[in-house]
Specification:
Its cofactor is [4Fe-4S] cluster. This protein is of the alpha/beta class and 316 residues long. Helix content is 37%, strand content 19%. Helix 8 packs parallel to helix 9. It is flat.
């Protein structure tokens, strides 16, 4: 039988960002430097394939520091941790390496600077997300108030409306955040914002690439994990920008083929913690069923690279 024709619009940029790439390298280099096992507090990045690959090399993933022995190195995930975590590791005289993405660390520094200037913080973010917990944990209890929606802005109770600043989680929807910031500025005209937008370059670039292809796609798949904030935002962006069927898949085995019957155009992208091998796996699955033509749609080029900590440089 003749395969149905399909045009695949492959978004670029997609997949790994510099912070994810750096965090994975830190775990790999730690295993090389200290041997297995090396402990990692929380998933180093939100992707099962990546986590399983590192586990096979000797990484042990835990949720809390008290699950780690004193005599083995521990790595803090790319999402960042509250100040209490490295303090507890230091008290136990543990070897620890902070793999927090430098762009998340920038938000931590902003929050501390505002606190030192006597300002109470409002954080735009998702409750319970590791990055939100890490940022809020940089300051004493009550100094960072969380809002998730425009509606939350109307309800938040602050200490002094004239002494406020805001920061944001780095993986949010750019468009949604604009609305929340506008609501904050309307209610609190004196509120101080970041010198430069907190949402990271990779989040912004991947959302813009999805916006470029979504109107032309019968369906759009985001390769990413269900606990990946930036991946879920890409699904939402696709749906808001003209694509009637947008879904998150961890890999090719998750594809709902019945839902894709009759399509002639497909968009594919990947969250910032999804490796390219999984994107290729999805493309190959469509080539098995369709006469597929792949068109790259590139909306930006990325050349950002973050250095790994000096302590992990292993001599050749």
């Amino acid at each position: 039988m003749t395969k149905p024709q399909l045009t695949i619009y492959l978004a670029a940029p997609r997949g790994f960002c510099a912070g994810v790439d750096r965090a994975i390298k830190i775990v790999e280099m730690a295993i090389e430097k200290w041997g297995a096992p090396v402990y990692v507090r929380h998933e180093i990045v939100h992707n099962k394939f990546v986590v399983d690959s590192l586990r096979d090399k000797g990484a042990v993933f835990v949720e809390e520091l008290d699950e780690c022995p004193d005599d083995r190195p521990v790595i803090f995930s790319a999402h960042g941790v509250p100040k209490s975590v490295p303090a507890a590791a230091a008290k136990r005289e543990m070897i620890y390496v902070d793999a927090t993405c430098p762009l998340v660390s920038k938000v931590h520094i902003e929050a501390e600077r505002h606190y030192d200037n006597g300002l109470q913080m409002i954080m735009i973010g998702h409750a319970g997300h590791p990055e939100t917990l890490g940022t809020m944990g940089q300051l004493p209890d009550g100094e960072v108030l969380l809002v998730e929606t425009v509606e939350d802005v109307a309800q938040v109770e602050v200490r002094d409306p004239s002494k406020l600043a805001f920061v944001t989680q780095t993986t949010l929807s750019v468009d949604d955040t604009i609305d929340i910031v506008a609501a904050l500025r309307e209610r609190f005209p004196a509120i101080v914002g970041p010198h430069k937008e907190d949402i990271c370059y990779a989040t912004t670039n991947r959302q813009e690439a999805v916006k470029a292809i979504a109107p032309d796609c019968d369906a759009l798949l985001v390769v990413g994990a269900p606990n990946s904030s930036n991946s879920k935002r890409l699904v939402e962006v696709a749906a808001k920008n003209g694509c009637n069927y947008a879904q998150l898949v961890q890999r090719a085995t998750d594809i709902d083929w019945r839902a894709l019957e009759g399509i002639s155009s497909l968009g594919i992208t990947a969250g910032a913690s999804a490796p390219e091998v999984l994107v290729n796996e999805v493309i190959d699955a469509f080539r098995d069923r369709f006469d597929a033509t792949v068109e790259l749609v590139e909306t930006a080029q990325e050349n950002v690279e973050f250095k790994v900590p000096r302590v992990l440089r292993v001599p050749a």
